[in-house]
Amino acid sequence: MASERYELNMSMKCVKYMIFVISITFAVVAAMLLSMAVAIGNLFDDFQNFIDSHFFVPPNLLIAIGIILLVIALFGCVGALKESTAMINIYGALLLIVFVLQLAAAITAFVLRGQVSMMVRQKIFDSMGDYKQQDGYRNPIDTLQNTLECCGVDGFSDWAQFLPSDGTVMEYPETCCAAPPVNGECMPREYGCYSRLSWLISQGSVLIATGTVAVAFVQVLGAVCAFMLASAIRRAKTLRATRRWHLQQSLGIMTKPIETQYTGMEKSEANVDPDKYLPTSPSVN
Q1: In which band, very low, low, confident or very high, does the pLDDT at 270 lie, cut at 50, 70 and 90?
Q2: Could you give the number of structural domains in the chain?
Q3: Is pLDDT above 80 for 65?
Q4: Which domain, by its residues, includes 194?
């Protein structure tokens, strides 16, 4: 019994400290995921005119997952230190729920990555086509070309079909110039915007997918350890209760007060026969 109790306590301590370490690790990883998701979300916001709205779902979902993981990590630390079976079970269940959400975010990011090429090309062409007619479109395309240091879709020659030269108007906007124009002429940038923008969006989606998958499999380990700890805590509490009961029985201590009207001694004394000899009667000489 003593060796069994010792092994149980040692295994419970090992799992408890493992849960505590895993929870601290989750808190650090959650902070990293949160910062990465915010950075990718801000990057997408800078080019929101060239990105469909459903591309913002993975980074927003990752931000929510990061916040939830921070709360779960705190919950797991408190539950492990207090050895609370309920808190540990809830901790493991929440990890599994977040695991499902992370898989959904990773799958969504991988699926959207395959749609980047067609979306970016079409969005840039649409913005270039509206560049001359609507002033509102000039800011996005100029911002894109300035930020990524690019010109056109595949190159500066793409502007010829949208801004034809008539001797006074350049064939491409001023933001295509690698240096400030001189006398209306400038050296256009070498690279097109399509390759650079599609690479940024694709890399953002890959980071979201790989980051969530890596953390998700660690969460499975955390959930398994949590359920193991909850089982160990239940066994330890049951063993302690059993030992306490045996100790009380050996010392003659009963857990509930005994009603006197049901004891044999009290009943026999109440109905004693005066003519009947009992061991307690005085001797008759």
Answers
A1: very low
A2: 2
A3: yes
A4: 114-250
